[in-house]
Design goal:
This protein has a single domain, classed as Muramoyl-pentapeptide Carboxypeptidase, domain 2. It has a five-stranded mixed sheet with strand order 4-6-7-13-12, covered by helices on one side. Strands 9-8-11-10 form a four-stranded antiparallel sheet. Strand 10 (147-148) and strand 11 form a beta hairpin. By secondary structure, it is α+β, with helices and mostly antiparallel strands. The protein has six helices and 13 strands. The longest helix is centred in the first third of the chain and has 21 residues, at 2-22.
Amino acid sequence: MKRIQYTAALLLLLIASNTVAQDSLCYGTSKNGKLEYGVKLPGEGNNFVSYGSIPALAGRTYVHSKVKKVVIDAYNDLYKTMPDNVFKYAETGFENGGIFKPHKTHQNGLSIDFMVPVTGENGKSTHFPTNILNKYGYNVEFDSSGNYDEYQLDFDALGAHIVALHIAAQKNGISIWRVLFAPDLQPKLYASKHGEYIKKNIFIPNKKSWVRHDEHYHVDFNVNCRSL
């Protein structure tokens, strides 16, 4: 009996050790870092899709395991509260991190781009196209009112997603460092349903970065990383 108990305990210990070993490890910063045991985001879910199968096959949709948990939890929460809305994520990083062109960041698994949620001509939530012809959405340009062709940026859905990410991060023991979003569009975000919450809880720089961040918003998470 004791031998059986010992064997069972040893088996559980080995399973637990293997689980811990597979948790991601990040090093350095988003601008100068690397990642071990990166995990791939799923191509789709109940209310979200990836920006493209080819970039995913090229290994451009890996993140830190804790970031993946936050992203999926946030989408699941939104599916309960906003079941008719759809969302799309974009560039994340490589499985082992490192330089991720053309981005200046995305090196340690803690950065992720999300395509802005939009409504179509019928006013319903939809995806604007992301394909090789428009550089998988990165070549799309929304005007100062949040319009692009027949698509209108959905600021309420955008705000809801940012808040869902913030809440999911807190529940999973990490945090959001910053969100990059076009300064000229920020007033409309702050005027949305979740604007006050975002103002109080989430850092969004109001200075222009090297890209406008109008067709996507960039989110950096805070996870304790090791030095390079």
